[in-house]
Amino acid sequence: MRTKPLLILAVLLIARHSAAESPIDARDIIRDAIDHYRGLSSYSELTMTIHRPDWERRMSIQAWSSGSKKTLVRVTAPPRDAGNATLVLDENKVWSFAPRINRVIRIPSSMMSQSWMGSDFSNKDISRTDEIVEQYEHRLLRVDEHDGHKVYVIESIPHEEAAIVWGKEISHIRDDYVELEHQFIDQGMQTVKVLKTLDIQKMGGRMFAVQQRMNILEKVDEWTEIRVQILDFDRQVPDYLFTLSNLRNPRE
Amino acid sequence: MKTPFSMLVTVAWRNLWRNHRRSLIMLAAIAIGLWGMIWMTALMRGMVDQMIDDAISTLSGHIQIHAPGYLDDPSVEHTIAAVADNPELDKLLHSPEVTAWSQRIRVPAVIRSERDVYGITLVGIDPQRERGLSFIADSVVSGHYLESVNDQHVLLGRKLVEQLETKLGRRIVILSQDPDNNIAERGFRIGGIYDTDLQATETTYVFAGIETVRRMLKMGSGVSEISLLGHDYRNVDGLAAEVRAVAGTAETSTWLQLDPYMASMLDVMDGFIIVWFCIIFLALSFGLINTLLMAVFERTREIGLIQALGMPPGNILLMVLVESSIMLLIGLLAGNLLSWLTLLPIRDGIDISAVAQGLEWAGMSSILLPAVKTSDVLLANGIVLVLGVLASLFPAWRASRKVPVEAITRIWQ
Questions:
Q1: Do the Cβ atoms of A54 and A230 come closer than 8 Å?
Q2: What is the mean pLDDT of residues A85-89?
């Protein structure tokens, strides 16, 4: 009789285990990872290092985000770059402000795949909206073990008519929704660029990829790294931040 | 008894062959001069014909109908009613005067692959109607031509595929603007790759089914342009007037208006040919005059003698003219024959692809097809004959003005 509850427990455990295993929806993981990354709203300060074979350049950046689409990114240092800002309201609604010419420019989506401020990040990488959730077909390839965490390896293939050029993207997402790696693969199945997480720390009340490096594989010894210094998910991010007038004349 | 003129001809003929080496050289000069005129003209004509042909098949057609303002700003806002919505135009387009027609949506767009971005012109076509009207149906070298107006694939030029570092069967993203100024973008799979003589064409145009483009751009039932072919590209004004009458507010233009560079090319060509003929003739005439002067000078004593025997100066003048005419006629005969013989082997075109890149800026293709026009050949022959006879008037006049006594008493030949 004593074995029975144990048996039941074992059955339950197995059932739970397989129940936990089978309904893993790759799409949900991706969405959760983005939610984890963006929070409901967030404020962060980070440095971006652009490395090239014969020079290296560092920028300090402030960023605000709200909801799943809105992002405001502003460069604060060095002085020659300070004031450059990018506002994202949607995938197709991106503006950039350059204080030197005192102009707000709408970035057409043709330029979304082009470099953001000379870095290896594209305008699209900077905005990091939840576009990837809707426009791709997601499939869980495998589950790896890493430092005692489960790592979901998810393949995302864009829909036939989606306005995305990649053949597929592969994300490595830890079970606490920290993205460890993101590969952009062309249609010849050649990896073009890789975003790798180099350091994970508890910040803003959650585990967060505080140091990430973007590497375009065809270019030797060229990469761009971002390191998050301050991250705050609780701060109130008012809506007026995400306006064109605030893009041009910062109030905060 | 012989008439004086036929006697003159006999004498002239014999005179001609007294120094046969000199006469043969002159004949060769005339023949080669004429050959240069005809051959060169045939090549130039061929070049221009081909340029015009290319221009017309590169989406121009003989006549095009656009919304007013489209030509200045080829955007999606400037549309005209489709042919189906204009019964009068429909009727005209189906008349025997029109050999081919089609309607298109043509908008500026941006194409994006994993590695690059280029500005292009996105052309939504009716694949069946486009056959025989423009180059695209016959230029697909790999993959397939579009099957229907709803075909989900796009056709890219070979050079563009190269620049985008993509391949047949891969996806690219095309982006444009809808009539409400919103961005319209979607992915397409490359269904075919086309190849044209001009790289500029290959990097400019991307083709897709017209209904597919219409859906992507969220357009109504309108089209950007209607293009049609008549029977003769040199004579399009009559048909254009008929089209204009039924096109309503839309703007009707002929290819001469759409491509003024090509149109002026035609005029320049006609002028250039005459200048070219005259330059060759000028070079030729020095040789001709020199030869005749020499012949007359040699025969000073003889001319004096026949004058003394009673031949009037007018006949001497005539005799020299007949001599030069015979020479010109034989030379022309040989020249025409030479031209025909040398044009025969290249009548299917000369491959000049080795210098194709250099020719491209002028819109020329890499195969040169000579075009012999009867009027050009007649003009060349006419110019040589008439101006040749005129040029020989001077030596002939010199011959007729000799004073018999002086001429006879000249002691040296």
A1: no
A2: 89
- Is the Cβ–Cβ distance between A165 and A142 less than 8 Å? no
Looking at residue A129, its pLDDT comes to 67
Quick one: residue B349, left, alpha or beta (phi over 0 = left, psi -120 to 50 = alpha)?
A: left
Name residues whose C-beta falls within 8 Å of residue B4's C-beta, 6 or more positions apart in sequence.
B315
Listed by start position, the domains of chain B span 4-55+263-409, 63-229
Q: How confident is the model at residue A21 (pLDDT cuts 50, 70, 90)?
A: very low
CA-nearest of A228, A231, A229, A227 to A205 is: A231
User: For chain A, where are the E strands, in sequence order?
Assistant: 41-52, 55-66, 70-77, 85-90, 93-98, 103-107, 136-146, 149-158, 168-174, 179-185, 191-203, 206-216, 223-232
Instruction: Look at the block and give the residue holding tokens 């908008």.
Output: B107
Of A110, A186, A187, the CB nearest to B175: A110
Q: Which residues contact B177 (CB under 8 A, 6 or more apart)?
A: B75, B76, B107, B183, B184, B217
- What confidence score (pLDDT) does residue A17 get? 47
Q: Is pLDDT above 90 for A35?
A: no
Q: Counting one residue from A and one from B, how many pairs have CB atoms under 8 Å apart?
A: 59
DSSP string, A82-106: TT-EEEEEETTEEEEEETTTTEEEE
Whether B110 and A108 lie within 8 Å, measured CB to CB: yes
d(C-alpha B339, C-alpha B269), whole Å: 20
User: For residue B284, what are its two tokens?
Assistant: 């030729």
Peptide bond into A78 cis (omega under 30): yes
Q: What is the mean pLDDT of chain A?
A: 83
Query: In which residue ranges of chain B is pLDDT below 70?
Result: 1-3, 352-366, 410-413
ipTM of the complex: 0.74
Identify which of A111, A161, A186 has the shortest CB distance to residue B186.
A161
Strand pairing class (B183-194; B153-157): parallel
- Give residues with Cβ within 8 angstroms of A233, minimum separation 6: A39, A40, A41, A42, A204, A205, A206
According to DSSP, the residues that pair with B251 across neighbouring strands are B66
pLDDT in the model for residue B190: 93
**pLDDT of the residue at B355:** 65
Residues in chain B with CB shorter than 8 Å from the CB of A158 are: 171, 187
CATH code matching the domain that covers A26-248, chosen among 3.90.1010.10, 2.50.20.10, 1.10.10.10, 3.30.70.2740? 2.50.20.10
**Could you give the residue ranges of the DSSP H alpha helices within chain A?**
3-21, 26-38, 123-127, 131-135, 244-248
**Residue of B111, B112, B150, B174 best to disrupt the A interface, most CBs of A under 10 A:** B112
